[in-house]
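In the previous chapter we treated chains in isolation. Here, by contrast, the input contains two separate entities that must be folded as one system, with a combined length of 664 residues.
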Amino acid sequence: MNATPLSTPSVAPSFPQSVWLVAEREVGSKLRSKAFLISTGILLLIALVSVVWGGFAAQSSNAVKVAVTSDTAAVADQLGDAVEPTQAADADAARELVASGDVDAALVPSDEGSFGFAVVVEESAPSGLMQMLSQTPPVEILSPSGTDGMLRYLVALGFGLIFFMAALTFGSTIAQSVVEEKATRVVELLISAIPTRALLAGKVVGNTILAMGQIIGLAAIVIVGLTVTGQGELLSGLGAPLVWFAVFFLFGFVLLAALFAAAASMVSRQEDIGSTTTPLTFLVMAPYFLVIFFNDNDLVMTIMSYVPFSAPVAMPVRIFLGEAQWWEPLLSLAILLASCAAAIWIGAKIYEHSILRMGARVKLAEALAG
Amino acid sequence: MLELSGITKSYGTHRVLDDVGFTVAPGRLTGFVGGNGAGKTTTMRIVLGVLARDAGRVELNGSPVTAADRRRFGYMPEERGLYPKMRVLDHIVYLARLHGFSKPDATVRATALLEELGLGERLQDDVETLSLGNQQRAQIAAALVHDPEVLILDEPFSGLDPLAVDVVAGVLQNRAAQGASVLFSSHQLDVVERLCDDLVIIAGGQIRAAGTREQLRSEHAQRRYELVSAGDVGWLRDDPGVEIHEFDGGYALFDADSDETVQRVLRRAVESGDVASFAPRHPSLAQIFKEVIQ
């Protein structure tokens, strides 16, 4: 036996050291999991593909192809970029181009009606073209909307989806890891070495690092993708909201992770995790559905941007839409930080009181009272 | 010196520990023996601080055990468990680091210890791929890797084959020889009897006997003697001070009521024929155990 004799005692690690050791193991064991690496790879790939596809879709021309004769070329010119004119020798040649499918429609000279030309189509008239040709009175918009509805919806959906997926993935990870330690009794070894709170803190920190890593990876891919595919305009609008999203996500996730760990510590078997974490799962999913249904409802979005569980989604969307005053994200962040501290305090209490109690589910009142 | 006194613990109205007190001396192996539900595991968990006591004191070298002291404890819980998907070496290194060793130190220690326990070939394998017996060895490594001053092992020998029992027993004796206080519980009374310097017997949450092995044996010795003679020893039946347990021609196993009776029997035996053997028979731990828990 060449072990060092007892006279060389180990120095107990400090609280931050203990936390970091636990966090390091959480990250390391996740990075060893093939399932995690593959699912992360797929997620990043999906993000990359959608950004690149979006780029191509934006570049590919959606102008209506029309055949014109020398008499109708001027009409097409008035429509500008919305149409792509093809010069035909005469009206019959233009009709043939339509018949062969080379163009969507042809503008040929006609005496019928007051237009002086007629539209020739194969089966039905392209509605876009007909709108452009029809005459509408001028419209005066008193308060122009900054962003169009579709983009607003997509951005809200994107933030909602990312928050929902990342929070749920790593929330469940921390819950499973807590129950694994409890079920295998490793926890008895761990807390005979380090304080219970250090163990909890380490698990929260470790999973937060993983979740933030994934979010930052996604953001990096989106930013690089948008730049490379020439969608810089969208990027300049998204930059600030993305940064705010990352900041809100960080604290929002810590809040959820502490609660997930506490909820999981109340049960002793993996099969029972659902019985205590389901309410949290709803809390995580709620902002996603709310932004989908209410992204154009100012009142709901404003309320959501201050509620800690939905602020990480709603506030960046409002910033993107230019609807938030400069102080609003700061106030919301302060509320989030306060709730975060409260969640850690309550979570640690529940965790400390439940982690060694095997068997039946620990009741919430008992876990809080000790 | 680890010292427990007046430890009481109840679950609801059920009192599982009642005024439990004993000492675990450095440099010695102390066996902790008791039936199922006698309170062994509860006592050990209280010593480790993973369970709160209702009353009583746990002291190390005369002062109450602190969280810092407990970091110098090694613990093997009753229900085994390590992270299933962690490599054996990584796992033991991790636990050593939680106890304050640097990464290189922890690695050297963990490797040496696992090799000593016969797991040298399995260092890079996941814990879950080991056989139960080997997981048990890894579990023992987890309790020992930080060279604890006090070792608390709950059933360290259960599930081990006789060879592994010897390996683990050797490792524990080694630790005791280096000055550690070792407390272990076991159902295998023969192993306890072979290994232990000191014994603590618990039943129904109360300590029924505690002391050195020799002390307990002599306290519970009933002047039981074994006589082997060339002649017939049937005359023993007529001695008023003798109670015979086994008898077969020239062989007798008997209890004597006093030392005079013993001497009288010996003289008579020598007169009656050649005595091949006349010796006191010490009670086995199993006998003492049965006697004290009644």
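The CA atoms of residues 21 and 202 of chain A lie 7 Å apart. Strands of chain A lie at 64-68, 83-87, 105-109, 117-121. Compare these points with the single-chain example from earlier in the chapter.
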